[in-house]
Amino acid sequence: RALNNLKCIGDNTFEIWVMEKTGVVLYNADASEIGLNVFTNPRYDQFPKMRLACEKIASEPSGNTSFPYYETGSDKIVNRKVYWQTLTQQGNEWKFIWSKASR
Predict the structure, then answer these.
(1) Which residue range forms the structural domain that includes residue 43?
(2) How many Cα atoms sit within 13 Å of 28 on the Cβ side?
């Protein structure tokens, strides 16, 4: 549970998730998303802006963006502000993504 929330920028609490460059979710606080591909899984069809943001995340080593998606543990859709950093190891690229619902 320690990875689910992280204070990384001032007093802001962020959630963390990890995605392969291919779009496969390796870690998420919502375990039902682990193993899904954000680019191809129908679960994400109603969130085209999320897919565009994930394409940006996959193609750039670090940065920030935002997109509408569910608030964690809810069916409420909120705007999510995300920051990411890439870890490259033995030809693999993992995107560590810090996410927060922006109000």
Answers:
(1) 5-102
(2) 20
Say which CATH number the domain at 83 has: 3.30.450.20
Residue 59 has pLDDT above 80, yes or no: yes
The amino acid present at 87, given as its one-letter code, is L
Give pLDDT tens digits for 13-31.
Answer: 789 999 999 999 999 988 9
51 CB-side CA count, 13 A: 13
pTM tops 0.90: no
What does the DSSP assignment read for 28-82? -SSGGGTT-BTTT-GGGTT-HHHHHHHHHHHHSSEEEEEEEEEPTTSS-EEEEEE
